[in-house]
Design brief:
By secondary structure, this protein is α/β, with parallel strands linked by helices. Helices cover 40% and strands 16% of the residues. It has 26 helices and 26 strands. Helix 12 links the parallel strand 20 and strand 21.
Length: 697
């Protein structure tokens, strides 16, 4: 990816969107101290600043700031993380890498953000975040100098920073007793990469070493310099924290992994069904609750979700779910093109069809029921509500109903609940005595009553009212297709089975609710969350991504065995486990460790310039189909004019073609059942995104 295009991409993500970290700061480089005119907005006054240890530029060395170079990208990532936590950033400059580690251990800073190369020796004394990028260490020389291997360095002087991973690598090579030996020259502490390269260009230094990502960013325009030799395999680049800061490390990893892997949520399309089919994705806006959309044992479920998924499949589309921050945002997200429709048990009202929106034909109906605590006096009429307080969301249909009743003379107080609260959460507050009364649709009350006995419905506020899917009035083709689907399916076999699954079988509903995944600290994603978190942290992966892959592989069954002989939670072949130094794959911990370690190995098999998101999708595809087939697919994608560095919509298309004889016989690794890795990666990605949305809701 070109530096300019990557810079633009990063700045777009930072404009309130999701960041994809693709560059890194050279280990031997340094981060300038920010100017006083660069404050960070603090949303939570009183929180301590985030103290970030960086490398100081020597006095008198100035360079024109160049947006998009690794160090500026790093500062932006630090600022974005701090802002997400409501904290200011305080940079703590130090003179060199040895002082950086000392300052970290002495508590002079919270985070060492010099994008350190992760090495075994360093991992013994600090805890590293999930990788920001991957890189090789490369020797930089003047034009015309190339070395076939490290023996060519004999007799030369190589300038690197003391304490850098470059120095560690060179010392390791020297121990192999090359003749004649090369000399390692210490650079001035904190000297930035640009100055080092200037020194190589003018002869002040013979050779130096950079990380490949920094070399890719800095060498264009320096025609007198070139990469002369690669010294290392691909290695991860990360930030460091003190080993005792487990909670802080988890917070950093959560932020970094989400911003690596989540799809941009800002894509806006206003077009109709034909264009939706060209993109291949129908975007459904909804809210996470037991009626609409939730996760259960790794499966995406919900009455609204299952109905719309069936509609999407009938149109040859994949269903993607977006979750606005509150119920009140659902119409806006449709109107603005962030979603194609909203499906969230929405009662059809005239108000909701204003400003360019329309409803499909009804597909369900429900009565609005007054909900009270089980130990409350029996409420039978509106007169019984005198002096009571009813709490509902202002944007809900319940609010309109209650306003009408008050206009007709009912004597109760109407109070607004936060728009980001689900109706089931409001019911829970009623049960705990935090709210007096509320109103809920009958199907939601039915679900709640299957598992709790501390509430009851008092009476209905009117007749049953229809639900519809909300879409733009300017999309008549989509509306026509939805109406046709509802007409065909309503009260048919699939509809009846699905409706009973969520609203008509109390035992099944209760079982799903008990194991429903609400994410993070509030819920359980798998029976092995603690183990996953341990090993994911050890290998710099997002634990929710690992859970998603584990479900895809074994449905959380440690005794699972595939037709090919793969075993355990992560379905690793015994010979692969043996190569990884592991054996009993039916032991949940061993099986999990083997899978995570193998995925980490695959992540490092791709070139360092590949950004973290694409590296993850390629590694998952290789986990399923083999890295050889992934490389074949990337070569084929390039021949087809598709982007060989992007999985979705590009290399995955080429993978599908490798199932055809015409393409398979031209591939180095031959035929592959391409549909399997394509579905595998998509399903893991979708489940991971669902886990993240649920943990944020």
């Amino acid at each position: 990816m070109a530096v300019d295009s990557l810079t633009n991409h990063l700045w777009l993500r930072f404009s309130g969107l999701l960041l994809l970290v693709g560059l890194h700061l050279s280990l031997a480089g340094c981060s300038p101290e920010p100017a006083a005119s660069e404050p960070i907005r603090t949303e939570e006054p009183g929180r301590p600043p985030l103290r970030v240890i960086t490398l100081r530029r020597p006095e008198g060395v100035e360079f024109l700031p160049r947006s998009g170079l690794p160090e500026s990208v790093e500062r932006d990532v630090v600022r974005a993380y701090a802002e997400s936590e409501g904290r200011e950033v305080e940079f703590v400059p130090v003179e060199g890498l040895e002082e950086l580690f000392t300052a970290l251990h002495e508590g002079k800073g919270d985070l060492a953000a010099a994008n350190l190369t992760v090495t075994e020796s360093r991992s013994e004394v600090v805890a590293f975040t999930t990788p920001l990028a991957f890189a090789r260490e490369v020797v930089i020389a003047r034009k015309g100098e190339r070395f076939e291997n490290a023996h060519g360095l004999g007799g030369r002087k190589i300038a690197v920073h003391d304490g850098s991973s470059f120095q560690e690598t060179l010392e390791s090579i020297k121990r192999q007793r090359f003749q004649p030996p090369f000399e390692i020259v210490a650079l001035p502490p904190g000297l930035p990469d640009e100055a080092v390269l200037d020194g190589v260009a003018d002869g002040s230094y013979e050779l130096t070493v950079l990380d490949s990502n920094s070399a890719n960013a800095l060498l264009p325009g320096r025609e007198e310099l070139q990469v002369a030799l690669s010294l290392s395999n691909v290695r991860p680049i990360a930030w460091a924290v003190r080993p005792t800061e487990g909670a802080f490390l988890a917070s950093l990893n959560k932020y970094l992994s989400e911003h690596h892997l989540l799809q941009p949520s800002d894509e806006r399309y206003l077009d109709d069904l034909n264009a939706i089919k060209e993109r291949g994705v129908l975007r459904m806006a909804t809210r996470n609750n037991a009626a609409n959309y939730f996760l259960w044992r790794g499966e995406l479920l919900g009455f609204e979700y299952e109905l719309l998924k069936r509609f999407a499949e009938s149109q040859g589309l994949r269903l993607a779910v977006v979750v606005p921050p509150g119920h009140d945002a659902l119409p806006d997200w449709v109107r603005e093109g962030r979603a194609d429709l909203a499906a969230a048990s929405l009662t059809i009202t005239d108000e909701r069809q204003d400003n360019g929106l329309a409803f499909s034909r009804p597909y369900n109906s429900a009565s609005e029921l007054l909900v009270t605590r089980a130990d409350d006096p029996v409420l039978q009429t509106l007169e019984d509500l005198a002096g009571r307080t009813v709490v509902v969301r202002r944007n809900s249909s319940y609010w309109k109903t209650l306003e009408s009743l008050r206009a007709e003379g009912a004597q109760f107080v109407l109070e607004a609940a936060p728009e980001d609260l689900e109706t089931e959460q409001i019911i829970d507050r009623v049960a705990r005595g935090e709210y007096d009364l509320t109103v809920a649709d009958s199907h939601i009350v039915d679900i709640e009553m299957t598992w709790r006995d501390d509430i009851r419905s008092a009476f209905a506020l009117g007749d049953s009212r229809p639900h519809g899917w909300l879409l733009r009035a300017s999309n008549p083709k989509l509306r026509e297709a939805l109406d046709s689907f509802i007409k065909k399916e309503f009260r048919g076999l699939f509809y009846n089975v699905t409706h009973k699954k969520y609203f008509g079988d109390p035992k099944r509903v209760r079982a799903r609710l008990e194991q429903r995944a609400d994410g993070g600290a509030e819920g359980v994603l798998s029976p092995y969350d603690a183990l996953v978190q341990d090993y994911a942290t050890r290998y710099g992966l997002d634990w929710r991504l690992v859970v998603s892959q584990m479900y895809q592989e074994s449905r959380f069954d440690p005794k699972a065995k595939s037709w090919a002989g793969a075993l355990g939670l992560m379905q690793v072949l015994p010979r692969t486990a043996k190569e990884l130094g592991l054996s009993d794959l039916h032991d949940p911990e061993v099986g999990l460790h083997a899978g995570v370690k193998y995925l980490d190995w695959l992540m490092k098999r791709f070139e360092p310039e590949l950004n973290m998101a694409e590296r993850t999708w390629f590694a998952l595809a290789a986990y399923n189909a083999g890295i050889g087939h992934v490389r074949d697919a990337r070569r084929l994608a390039a021949r087809k004019g598709w982007d060989a560095d992007r999985w979705f919509g590009n290399v995955e298309r080429a993978m599908l073609l490798l199932s055809e004889r015409e393409y398979a016989r031209q591939a180095a690794h031959g035929y592959v059942r391409g549909r399997e890795p394509v579905d595998y990666v998509r399903q893991i990605r979708d489940r991971f995104e669902a886990y993240v949305r649920l943990s944020a809701s």
